[in-house]
Amino acid sequence: MLVDSGASVSILRKDFFDSLVLENRPQVMPVRMNLLTATGEASEFIGKVNLEIKLGTHVFKHEFLLAEIKDMAILGMEFLMTNSIDVLFSKGCLRIKDEFITCFTNRGDSSCCRISIAETVDIPPDSEMLIKGMPCGPVIFNEVGLVETNKSFIEKTGLLLARVVVQPNSNIIPLRVANFSTEPVKVYKNTIVGTFEPVDIETLEVSTVSRISCAEIKTEVGIPDHLKCVFEFQRFG
Fold first, then answer.
1. I need a surface site. Which of 115, 174, 175, 236 has the fewest CB within 10 A?
2. All domains of the chain, ordered by start, with CATH?
3. What distance lies between CA 211 and its chain's CA centroid?
4. Has this prediction a pTM greater than 0.85?
């Protein structure tokens, strides 16, 4: 999903709309408008629909135009202004009332960012859980990165955060947390747990393996006399 402050309307990709469950798919209404691309080319919109969209914990109902576009959806200025959503470019996020939603970027240099808890959760004693985390800064979409804990989180909560490699394709980063104490531990929303650091993925070339001959092993050959005492000792000792 793309937030485009230069778009006056909001657009939904046609094949994504077609993939929705038929019972939940609203009726497509005709529209007489053209989509003007950045290159100046024009194409007709297929129609328009009213859909509910969820951003963070907020649900909005808005009108979307259907078109053949690359992104799943485009949120334009009309959507942002109607729903009082602020785009904070300095922090790389959207602000909806008191909630901040981190935005991903498809370009730019990789950078390390902190990870916080997405929602308050109780970790049972002597257990391991998979919980939701969220980046505290812009992250390149589908970028592979390493999640590492910080010392202060361990000291304050007594919990352990697994060191894992993840590839976030949304605003959620999976976190593996373990509680080895005998008491439940509550971790609160927005608690900083660690960092997300991009890593480079190297493609390994597989070389040709040469065929080698295998010698036949004769199992009927007995144990040499000088080793019999060792086997007897292992069997009875």
1. 236
2. 2-102 (2.40.70.10), 113-198 (2.70.40.10)
3. 43
4. no
